[in-house]
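RECORD TYPE: protein structure
NAME: Inactive serine protease 35
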Amino acid sequence: METMLFWLILFTLGRTPIDGSEMERDFMWHLRKIPRLVSERTFHLTSPTFEADAKMVLNQACGIECQKELPAPNLSDLEDSLSYETVFENGTRTLTRVKVQGWVPEPHENLTAQGAPVRRRRHVYGTDSRFSILDKRFLTNFPFNTAVKLSTGCSGILVSPNHVLTAAHCVHDGNDYIKGSKKLRVGLLKMRNKGSGKKHRGSRRSRREARGGDGREGSRESLKERAKAGRRRKESARGQRAADGMPSFQWTRVKNTHIPKGWARGGRGDAALDYDYALLELKRAHKKKYMELGISPTIKKLPGGMIHFSGFDHDRADQLVYRFCSVSDESNDLLYQYCDAESGSTGSGVYLRLKDPDRKRWKRKIIAVYSGHQWVDINGVQKDYNVAVRITPLKYAQICLWMHGDDASCTYG
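PREDICTED:
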């Protein structure tokens, strides 16, 4: 019954009715000219220590009301924040300075901030509205197959055959790279049927136990029996995971990681929540369908005011969890929303389904990165929200530069 309800809701949201030409324009992807981000110079830095603890919540985040009091960012500050660190799999690190060309400041958007209620600290608000994706027919197909798991405990999303977009705090706490990020791995969804897969030899321990105390081989029959027992145990566990809808993961090493200097401050000021995103380049390309980047529209341009994302919440034991919810507020760089989510889902790609004006079909694109639960300062009062970092034209240009190595393919987005 729950599965039927989930797909009915998903189908209904995907078929949002459009009445009139105004609605038709509102719910379309519109290509726009992107500012140019040009790499100016790259410096070699000392290798990081990789000793930071994973940190999901900032000490203090400037909320919408707080941001109103800040001066408009100047070009020099933006170029400093959009400059970026790259850490490679061998532990070396570089800093690349960038120049911004063709940038036009956007007016501040704030649609619904007044009267926002104070809420208790929690990741799930009211009734838990999350759905576990258990059916392998959907789990390994688009769009759910784009969700990935990081070895540091976060989620991410496939944005090319070689790249994963995630939250910066999943690999860096603002001062240093976190423990485990030096040998960072990405897990791609892979379902196994009961009894499938290659047959594995018996464990090393079983083979050792089959030897006599003096190191001589035990009987051939004893060795075969222990190997069979080991295979039965593994196949039973594998089959149970498939029966329970739990995915297996194909783990791939990360070749390098890009993080904006707006986040990786290295002790020189606090990390800015606006820059909590990172791009991982995989050592080995995958063959799965990925999701393209898009520029985050305003709340008025969201069908039903809804956003969607899937991740691996820690409270659901490796299950892929999907949710959709309304956005309650926005700033130029952040979406404040009520999506039910637990730790482990941070780094997920937030996406929309809008109409492609050229091909006359509906298309999903990533418009934000889920940063997680944060306390933000609003009129001097700390309030809690689940927050996502919007992909603005400048951030689109930066991520596109990371993916392609130059800005030639990043003219429009």
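COMMENT: The helical segments are 2-14, 20-26, 64-68, 75-82, 136-139, 204-209, 220-243, 393-404.
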